[in-house]
Amino acid sequence: MESARPVFYVSDGTGITAETIGHSLLTQFSGVRFSSDRLPFVDTPEKAKEAAERIRAAGAARGLRPIVVNSCVDPNLNILLAESGALMLDVFAPFIAPLEQELGRSREAQIGRAHGIVDFDIYHQRINAMNYALTHDDGVKPDYSDADVILVAVSRAGKTPTCVYLALQHGVKAANYPLTPEDLEGERLPARLRQYRGKLFGLTIDPQRLHQIRQERRPDSRYAQLDTCKREVAQAETMLRREGIELLSTTNASIEEIASRVMKHLGINREMY
């Protein structure tokens, strides 16, 4: 089997920007195997030299030229990283020159600015949204008057991680409600949700995948049986479609995609940067 090509996401900050862009690029090449690693906070010449040596060693071990997806803003650090011999992909390079020309001014290359706290109001909005998601998880608090969105689905269909992502990434107050066997037998939207119909968004999942997830949580239980999963998913989908609630499968969707679709459908537009 062909060795996996080493890929490094290198940044003078958290590395999230480089990794997000790099991952999106690499998924376009489904026939190639990659082995990725994130190198955050490479913000001094010494750290850049250490990173370059690590990248060079990985290439030598695999017998393949490494790929570096880089979001360091200091050109001197980039020169040192390039000494690794890797293919260098600077995530900012294609955009800086056109922006400088359009705006009539040069950029101010400041390390770590992309993920700095620019606005404390926005920061607190995210924290408050996160607290809201945690206190309104799995129907713990039935009062959803302050919610921006309420995710509705059977247990373990992806409600909680999506709520957390919506809170941290977009400052959205997201609650979730798990459809219980009693709710599903009723065949109608639970009474406590009806007044919030405009905030509801339904999630579903392939029963086989749901079985695998539940089996990891509660092995060999009735809750995790495939027949139980098939029945609950079918009942939930029938209920939500009958009630006119938008429905999205989480089986092969990333949290980012789920969150984007939820916000688009409900008309939520948050500028968090």
Architecture overview:
With 273 residues, the chain is an alpha/beta fold. 46% of the residues lie in helices and 14% in strands. It has eleven helices and eight strands. It has helices at residues 16-26, 45-62, 75-82, 93-103, 120-135, 159-170, 181-186, 191-194, 207-217, 226-242, 255-266, and strands spanning 5-10, 34-39, 67-70, 87-90, 149-153, 174-178, 200-204, 247-249. The strands form two sheets. Strands 2-1-3-4 form a four-stranded parallel beta sheet, with helices on both faces. The protein has a four-stranded parallel beta sheet with strand order 6-5-7-8, sandwiched between helices. Strand 1, helix 1 and strand 2 form a beta-alpha-beta unit. Helix 2 runs parallel beside helix 3 (75-82) and helix 5 (120-135) runs antiparallel to helix 6. The longest helix is centred in the N-terminal third of the chain and has 18 residues, at 45-62. It is globular, with a radius of gyration of 23 Å. The mean pLDDT is 90.
SS-based structural class?
Answer: alpha/beta
Overall 3D form = globular
> What share of the residues lie within helices?
40-55%
How many helices? The count is: 11
Average pLDDT value?
90
Quantity of strands, as a count: 8
Terminal-residue CA separation: 43 Å
